[in-house]
Amino acid sequence: HLCVLTGAGISAESGVPTFREAQTGLWARYDPGELATPEAFIRQPALVWRWYRWRRELVARVEPNAGHRALVTLAEHLP
Hints:
The protein has five helices and no strands. The chain is mostly helical and 79 residues long.
């Protein structure tokens, strides 16, 4: 089986913001302490669900890029 670990940046070329870019990253718009922890979910579940829904919808609208296609090609050529 093939396992490839990538960072958030693999989808940046497709228009998905990374987490740490100062002006455009997800954390520039959202505080990770408020949204990406179990405690945040306990405190504000509706806000956390909205944030994850926004992220899912964003990813669903973009097209795969060369990096994604390279991973598919790699997977097709390895057992």
